[in-house]
Amino acid sequence: MASLTDLSQLGAASAGLLLPSVLLLGVLHGLEPGHSKTMMTAFIIAVRGTVAQAVLLGLAATVSHTAVVWVVALLGLHFGSRYDAAVSEPYFQVASPS
Q1: Per-residue CA distances from 41 to 26, 30, 36, 66, 68 (Å)
Q2: For residues 34 and 3, what is the distance between their CA atoms, to the nearest angstrom?
Q3: pTM of the model
Q4: Residue in 14, 49, 40, 46 with CA at minimum distance from that of residue 4
Q5: Do 37 and 20 form a contact (C-beta atoms < 8 A)?
Q6: Who's near 30: CB < 8 A, 6+ residues apart?
Q7: Could you say which of 1, 23, 49, 69 would form a disulfide bridge with 44 (CB–CB 3.0 to 4.6 Å)?
């Protein structure tokens, strides 16, 4: 079976396999711990929120998370050709807490 990287290089012919794979990975990512789900649940319980409010809060979190991912992806596409990992790696090593 081809990897996602190989499929992405094939172009439009592989979209039938690539798009469902990306959707599945996104859904699995959203189910992972984090994404402030505990905080949002505690908030809804604390204010005795309704199911409609919980759904609205979940939709707002989904839309905002997706928007941030799109912005990061678009910035990566725009600046990616100018990025040199060898130049920036020492800065990341200094900033990392190890």
Answers
A1: 21, 15, 9, 20, 22
A2: 27
A3: 0.54
A4: 14
A5: no
A6: 62, 65
A7: 49
